[in-house]
């Protein structure tokens, strides 16, 4: 399988190690992985802010960069949801382009969903060990149905013990531009997430979207918690954490 890895802006600029971990996992699953140099932002910030022309331009760039691959895979539920659900709507007025975007959407996957349901990964070689909690990021859970997939993969690691925390499916308060427009509300939401994490006693929080990672980790550190680790699921599964 020839896979085009959509790295995402945040991974590229803030935590590139997540991208390398994703490549490692995909290659272990037998995929040929390429990272198209022409890829840019998926357009989600512009789309969510109502800037449709910019969102359309960026969507076309993604289409040109990735439509030749067997699959597009990304370590981010939010970017994948944009490609799978928003792109076809953006081009509803152009039947030919919409058909191309529908084809792209059908072969676009969040990383853990791809590893479980397409690559059919049966084992993992990771030395990660410890007690973890898992946060279900909103876009992955609600738009893509990603919940069991990361847990199934984490269960393959003999050194990992998953403790489910209260409110695992609740928003962390990031929500992209929501955290900027409604900072006070966002802060209260992430404070509750941090309290639930502390109450479950896990030494690390694992999740699948870097936006949520940065939001939760930032609040933990501002609250004086320097010990609890916040990790992308790709890092844990690949043994890079």
Give an overview of the whole structure.
This protein is an alpha/beta fold. The chain folds into two domains: 2-117, no CATH class; 130-238, Rossmann fold. The protein has 13 helices and eight strands. Strands 2-1-3-4 form a four-stranded parallel sheet, sandwiched between helices. The chain has a four-stranded parallel sheet with strand order 6-5-7-8. Strand 7, helix 12 (210-222) and strand 8 (229-232) form a beta-alpha-beta unit. Helix 5 packs antiparallel against helix 6 (95-106), helix 5 (77-90) packs across helix 8 and helix 7 packs across helix 9. The longest helix has 18 residues, at 183-200. It is globular. The model has no long low-confidence stretch (mean pLDDT 96).
Tally of strands: 8
Strand order of the largest sheet: 2-1-3-4
The total tally of domains equals 2
How can the largest sheet be summarized?
A: 4 strands, parallel
Structural class computed from helices and strand pairing: alpha/beta
Helix content: 40-55%
The portion of residues forming beta strands comes to 5-15%
In N-to-C order, the SSE pattern is EHHEHHEHHEHEHHEHHEHEH
Secondary-structure topology with pairs:
Layout: E1 2-5, H1 9-13, H2 16-28, E2 32-34, H3 44-48, H4 52-66, E3 71-74, H5 77-90, H6 95-106, E4 108-110, H7 111-117, E5 130-134, H8 138-144, H9 148-154, E6 160-162, H10 178-181, H11 183-200, E7 204-207, H12 210-222, E8 229-232, H13 233-238
Parallel strand pairs: 1-2, 1-3, 3-4, 5-6, 5-7, 7-8
């Amino acid at each position: 399988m020839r896979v085009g890895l959509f790295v995402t802006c945040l991974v590229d600029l803030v935590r590139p190690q997540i991208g390398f971990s994703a490549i490692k996992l995909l290659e272990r699953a037998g995929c040929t992985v390429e990272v198209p140099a022409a890829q840019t932002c998926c357009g989600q910030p512009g789309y969510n802010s109502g800037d449709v022309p910019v969102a359309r331009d960026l969507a076309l760039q993604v289409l040109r960069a990735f439509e030749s691959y067997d699959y597009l895979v990304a370590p981010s539920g939010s970017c994948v949801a944009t490609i799978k659900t928003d792109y076809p709507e953006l081009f509803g007025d152009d039947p030919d382009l919409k058909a191309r975007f529908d084809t792209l959407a059908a072969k676009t996957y969040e990383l853990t969903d791809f590893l479980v349901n397409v690559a059919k990964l049966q084992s993992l070689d990771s030395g990660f060990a410890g007690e973890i909690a898992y946060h279900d990021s909103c876009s992955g859970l609600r738009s893509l149905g990603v919940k069991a997939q990361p847990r199934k993969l984490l269960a393959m690691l003999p050194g990992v013990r998953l403790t489910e925390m209260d409110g695992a499916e609740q928003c962390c308060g990031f929500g992209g531009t929501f955290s900027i427009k409604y900072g006070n509300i966002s802060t209260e939401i992430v404070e509750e997430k941090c309290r639930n994490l502390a109450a479950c006693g896990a030494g690390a929080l694992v999740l699948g979207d870097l936006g949520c990672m940065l939001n939760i980790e930032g609040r933990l550190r501002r609250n004086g918690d320097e010990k609890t680790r916040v990790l992308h699921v790709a890092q844990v599964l690949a043994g890079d954490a």
